[in-house]
Design brief:
The complex is a heterotrimer of chains A (about 290), B (about 240) and C (about 325).
Chain A (H helix, E strand, L loop, with lengths): L3 H8 L6 H26 L6 H40 L4 H16 L2 H15 L2 H6 L6 H30 L3 H10 L3 H31 L11 H15 L6 H29 L11
Chain B lengths: L1 E10 L2 E11 L4 E5 L6 H8 L7 E6 L2 E2 L7 H7 E4 L11 H11 L5 H14 L15 H13 L5 E5 L7 H16 L3 E5 L3 H7 L2 E6 L2 E6 L1 H6 L4 H10 L2
Parallel strand pairs in B: 3-8, 3-9, 6-7, 7-8
Antiparallel strand pairs in B: 1-2, 1-4, 4-5, 9-10
Helix pairs in contact in B: 3-4, 3-5, 4-5, 5-6
Chain C lengths: L1 H9 L1 H24 L7 H40 L6 H17 L5 H34 L2 H15 L7 H39 L3 H31 L12 H7 L6 H30 L23
Chain lengths: ~290, ~240, ~325
Amino acid sequence: METAAAFRLRAAPKLVTGVGVVHLVEMTVAGLLMVFVILPAIFSFSLLSPQFWQIYTRFYVTGLFGTFFYVALALPLSAVIGFLMGWARVSRIRIFAWPSSLYVNVFRGVPPLILVIFASLFGTSLIPQPILDRFLAGFRRGDIAVGIAAIAIGMHSSAYQAEIFRAGFQSVPKGQVEAAQALGLRPWQGMRHVILPQTFRLSLPPLSNEFAALIKDTSILAAISGVDLVAKSRDLLGILPASGLPIVWIFAVWTVVALTYFVITYAVTRGLRLLERKFHTPGLEGISL
Amino acid sequence: MIRVNDIQKHFGALHVLRGITFEVQKGEAIVIIGPSGSGKSTLLRCINLLVEPDSGQVFIDGVQVNRHGIRHEWVRQQVGMVFQSFNLFTHLTAIDNVTLGLTRVKGMPHDKAVQKARELLARVGLAVKENAYPAELSGGQQQRVAIARALAMDPKAMLFDEPTSALDPEYIREVLDVMTALAREGMTMIVVTHEMGFASNAASRILFMDAGKIVEEGTAEQIFQNPKEDRTRSFVSKILR
Amino acid sequence: MADWRRYLREHWRYFDAALALVVIVGSVAYIYDLLVGSRGLDVAYIVRNYTLYLHAVLTNVYATTIAFLVGMVIGFSVGWLRTARTVALSKFVASMRVEKRERQESPSQSEGARRLLVVLSLLWYGTKYVARRIGDGLVEVIRGTPLYVQILFASSFFIVFLPQYATEGLLIGIIALAINTGGYQAEIFRAGLQTVHSGQIEAARAIGFSRLRAMRHVILPQALRLIIPPLTNEYIGLFKASTFLFVLGVPAEISYIAQHQGFAGDVFEIFAMVTAIFLAITVTLSFVVQALERRFRIPGLGFEQVKRPRGVRIAPAGG
């Protein structure tokens, strides 16, 4: 006869699956093949050339830091706003439900590029003057505009995240709310111990996709005067003729950039998927949007 | 112990409860039967104030509870409820489901709560499954955990809202056994059910409800063998095939 | 004294709605004031130029539609490719072992024919597997890199290999958008085909359909119903993405006009116009999507397994 502890051990989820490992290996092999053999053959460049890296490294590192900075600025903000908006959307209180609906529909309906352009032109005038003077005095106007544009990208993502959280809230069977009440739990206790834990677990899979999308969207900042990876790599195009390398080497740059983004998004989604599997509770399969 | 006086409830234009009055003594187990839509579930929810009656009074142990100033949470600790769809917290194991109320509402320290939860799970016959998640349990097992969860709060009375209606037939027996044992031990209970066998065995009184009113009241023999009202007779004849 | 409190509680719904409207109108008014303020709305500008903007949106619509259709072709073929059923490696090895055992037990069979069969099946499944994984890989790459990078890639391609067309911003944009949407649509088609795939072909053939007819009468109708909502959402997404034609310098594109006409200080008016047009289109399309979804929905069939509209509010229990 099985004991309680043995039951839990038997039903625990495996973190590293055989299939997962095979996929990883396949991907690495294919990636290496692609990057070092196939693409160079088609476009006649080589990623192993020291001359290339001599000019590019500087741009690459600056750009990468730029991207990380914009992501660090936009992502946490988007998650917080998205969560609050999602919560407000399911509320019975119309003061919360209607404005958040409006927010979500506006920021989902407007293309991120337009938000970015608008933010870069208007952003600084939206900040009250005292704050500008006190906290942001050391920054150039242009940089502040780009920062606001990054926040705009975060707001665009937060609209999608709000929908994800809303679906997460609505996927918690409402009978459990009744049961929590019947036990004598106060409304905020019910929220904290019953609803929110399940909402987060349910929202995590589509949320990881949305985070990846946010990271990719920071490339839009290159269209205005941002200093992210794409912008810096595009700058390289300008000095490429002068460096002596044929123009075809621009594909080497794009390959590196694409690879970087791919690795980042893959790491984010798979990493979060691993986290999700660790906290997996049977019966709480994620919502698929 | 529980007294209900002329309860009225509307949902929009729908007049669901049209003046319900009855009383349940301490230690009694009464069963409410009736067609769906008659207001049985609403009545139960009026007692633990999940639903507020429009008018009328609800008394628990002599205290009127449906008035301004009474904390709903206190009321719900006096009266436990078991639902048709179990409503176990899916993200918590069986034992965590039971300890949640103990630690968060009653403020019990965690180890004492676990000990008490273990006793209760053993009482409903599920000691082995304490670390199982609801999704890993059968319907009957889930409902028994739900009963243990409600019992953990040491309620003065228990409300059962069609506890076996959502169960596959092979699991109904185990839940009814737990409920019968509970009634034998002297728990005051109000059970809404279609299980006539349970009603005959465990109930001291049966109430027949239809269209928001109590049509007839009596013992099992009276209601099933000699119903006085026509409506009671037609309903009983449909139920007792 | 308690009367106004009770009045408030009973008529809460109306106060609630009124307050919500106040918040909405208030915040819009605040932003308006912040951006336009004392300058006053330049209505003349709007009236003068709105045709220009409408025309620009048409460019976006045109580019989106073409890219979408091309993407559909790409997406369907790659999606189809990705549903190629292959045998798992472990099963293959197991069947090889069975094969080996049989061979030892009855050695009368022709050795050469057996070997040939093994090699052929290896090649066949191997090729299917590789093809499927290549499809997977391509889609992952397209979905894992930003659209902007893909556009720059395409544009560089033209600069280097087809310099005579390098200035055709619209062409480059449509190609990049088509490939991008093709990748996303491949995922949609794959999921749609796969959801219906398993078991249904067997069931259809058990009734007596040939493979092709099973495809036509059983799989495709169901797959279409599954696929249409995400596809229409993809169209909306592509429409929004078409603003990237701006970075390719397509003069008729709406963001281009917004950026380059803005320096008379009418930025708010321009932004308002652009936003209004885009919102109008996306909201309308969203309604169309929802209507289509409702019409084509089959209960129980869908990507979203947990799509039950249970609110977090306590609704009265029946009975």
